[in-house]
Amino acid sequence: MGFFRSLMNRIRGRQDEWLDEADSTAERTVALSEVMSIRRRRHASNEAIFPTFRASAVDRPADGAPELSDARLALNDVFTPAQPVTERSRFAGRLDVLVRLISILEDQRAHVVLYGERGIGKTSLLHILSDIARESRYHVAYASCGAGSRFDEIFRGVLKDIPMLYTRNANPSGKEVEGGASLADLLPAGEFDARHLGDICATITGTRVLVILDEYDRLQDAAFRQNIAELVKNLSDRAARVQLVIAGVSANLQELVGYIPSIRRNVVGLPMPRLESREVAALIEIGEREAGVKFSPRAVETIDLLSHGSPYLVRLLCHHAGINAINDSRLEVDLPDINRGLDEIVEEAENRLGPVARNRAADLLATGNTPLLAAIARAASTPDGSFRLADIKSGLSDATAEATISAELARIEKLGGVLDQTADVGGPAYRFVDDALPFFIWMALARGHFTDGGKAGGGRAGGGKLRAA
Fold this sequence. Notes:
Layout: H1 2-8, H2 15-21, H3 25-49, H4 66-78, H5 95-106, E1 111-116, H6 122-135, E2 139-144, H7 151-160, H8 175-178, H9 194-201, E3 209-214, H10 222-237, E4 242-249, H11 253-257, E5 267-271, H12 277-291, E6 294-295, H13 297-307, H14 311-327, E7 332-333, H15 335-351, H16 355-365, H17 370-379, E8 386-387, H18 389-393, H19 402-414, E9 419-422, E10 429-432, H20 437-453
Helix pairs in contact: 4-12, 4-14, 9-10, 13-14, 14-15, 15-20, 16-20, 17-20
């Protein structure tokens, strides 16, 4: 009896009662059989409702209607907010920028600094540029910089991919060339500087080399930046067949690479603009074509409004909305799908906030002028997060008094630990202490507005309330 009692103490429900009522060995056997049958049924039921992946790791649907499963996989590939675009067929807009970038490299033989705010599509553009350059037989080296990146490590890797054959001093039939030696073999074993690297690059012939340094704003090593400036000057002065494309989060060229008069003529700054409405529509059309879904006209208009020209936001909104429609066994995406997507996006954005910002979030959103707070959040979407009164006014569709704007900023400052103000030549400059706050505010206000206006089906897809104070 002790064995059965020990076993049944671990099982829920009425199972103990059944065993207590079983007087004979036969009855206990029957009771145990019933208990184990219940456990098996419960286990099977639990497996039926337990969440699982909808596709395998080799991108094969697990179950469901093939049309919906294929659409889900395609949406996950096309609308990838967490990853850059790497295929030309999925790259929308920015062709003017790409044409200009290629022209600077090919016709002017200059080095390029590509700059703009975070999430504006710089990395995607660089991947497409790399693909096009390789088609034209360029040797392309791509490096993503970090706070601890070292000049010698990055450029040793660059030269390692260039065969020794492409140097004027190489013997095509020599042992080194036939043995697969690279230009990195010409470098010293330890550290080296821009002068030594420039000497080697000046000997390159028979090809052209494109060195892409992405995330350049993350670099903290002043010596690295100084070496880059000297390298640019060295390569330009010697007409070397090596060009640099430097990209990073910045409001202007000087902010990213510094003011160095000696290289001003050798570097061209290229700003990365926001997407225009036609480019947003083109990006959405790519998803529609590849996934077989259809975004309603008012859904496209709403995504255009909410994205504020950010490719990251377009893909984020399209991804959530599209998946929500597919979860409802539909291939038509409309406002309710965006509304539910905003719920998910706001929750994710809130989880990125620091403790202070999260504690102030409810009070921060409790404004009497939602459009003005939305304009403040949009004004703060600069590369460094700083903004002024003029930036806020440019996001409002009417002549809102500066006193009204100042009063709202003062309300936010009084919350404590949310907004910083500094004196500047052009007037007070503001910046949110937590750089994740502007995105959270914009999405939270959009959720509140579109939930009220969009689901009610009134007016223009959530139209003007976020635009005008």
